[in-house]
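Good morning,

Attaching, inline, the backbone tokens for the sequence recovery test we're adding to the shared suite. The designed sequence is right after.
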């Protein structure tokens, strides 16, 4: 099982960051059939073979994900896409 951990600073308010993550989550649900659920300031996501959380801190976004056997070989590609999206929304 491979894991991904990424931290990105941000300067948004909690509500602005929450709105951005909501937009990203909608895209994840549409494109990857991921189930999402907010738990306070963390968005849990899951689908067969992938699970994780996007946590909104006061000045940082933290993404953690666990990849099952089928997705482990794609770790670098998935991590690059997450980094690109974070840069796009939080740079």
């Amino acid at each position: 099982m491979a894991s991904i951990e990424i931290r990105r600073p941000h300067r948004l308010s909690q509500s602005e960051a929450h709105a951005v993550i909501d937009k990203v989550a909608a895209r994840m649900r549409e494109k990857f059939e991921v189930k999402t659920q907010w738990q306070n300031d963390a968005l849990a996501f899951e689908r067969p073979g992938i699970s994780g959380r996007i946590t909104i801190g006061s000045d940082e976004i933290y993404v953690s994900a666990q990849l099952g056997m089928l997705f482990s070989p794609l770790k670098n590609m998935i991590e690059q896409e997450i980094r690109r999206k974070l840069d796009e929304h939080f740079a």
